[in-house]
Amino acid sequence: MVDIYESGEMYLETILLLQKKKGIVRAVDICAELGFAKSSVSAALSALREKGFLENEDGALALTEKGRERAERIYERHTVLEAYFSAIGVPQPAASEDACKIEHVISDETFAVIKRLVTERAAGGETL
């Protein structure tokens, strides 16, 4: 797996969510969503393009297959962790904020256990 930093993963996740919401995503949309300067966003997007995570066609951003896989992996981690934190009583928005921080650093093994727990409990109609 190509290494990208937490900030790169955050950009990929943001692009994925904006594509689901709007369809076409442009750099200005990311600036507005994240509250970052255009110069910072341009530099980050350039790095993601160089690493093969992103394509830019006439100003419209598109995740490559590799970029989409990474973005969906991070988004899944976020949603599962947020559900877990909410289930154990962590109030919003702390559950979402903590999930956003932890999604980038949690080990695959630990995440798999939490995901299994959340999935099994949800399937059985149970809460944690």
Describe this entry's structure for a reader.
By secondary structure, the protein is mainly alpha-helical. It folds into two domains: 6-69, Winged helix-like DNA-binding domain superfamily/Winged helix DNA-binding domain (Arc Repressor Mutant, subunit A, Orthogonal Bundle); 74-123, Orthogonal Bundle (Diphtheria Toxin Repressor, domain 2), CATH 1.10.60. It contains six helices and two strands. The protein has helices at residues 6-22, 27-34, 38-50, 65-87, 94-102, 108-123; strands at residues 54-57, 60-63. A hairpin with a 2-residue loop joins strand 1 and strand 2. Helix 1 (6-22) packs across helix 3.
Number of domains: 2
Low-confidence parts: none
- Principal-axes geometry comes out as elongated
Global Rg: 16 Å
Strand content: 5-15%
Alpha-carbon distance between the termini? 33 Å
CATH architecture of the largest domain: Orthogonal Bundle
Give a short account of the largest sheet.
2 strands, antiparallel
What pattern of helices and strands is seen along the backbone? HHHEEHHH
Query: Count of DSSP E strands?
Result: 2
Q: Averaged pLDDT, please?
A: 93
How many helices? The count is 6
Structure summarized in a few sentences:
This protein is mostly helical and 128 residues long. The chain has six helices and two strands; from the N terminus they run H-H-H-E-E-H-H-H.
Chain-wise SSE layout:
Elements: H1 6-22, H2 27-34, H3 38-50, E1 54-57, E2 60-63, H4 65-87, H5 94-102, H6 108-123
Antiparallel strand pairs: 1-2
Helix pairs in contact: 1-2, 1-3, 1-4, 2-3, 4-5, 4-6
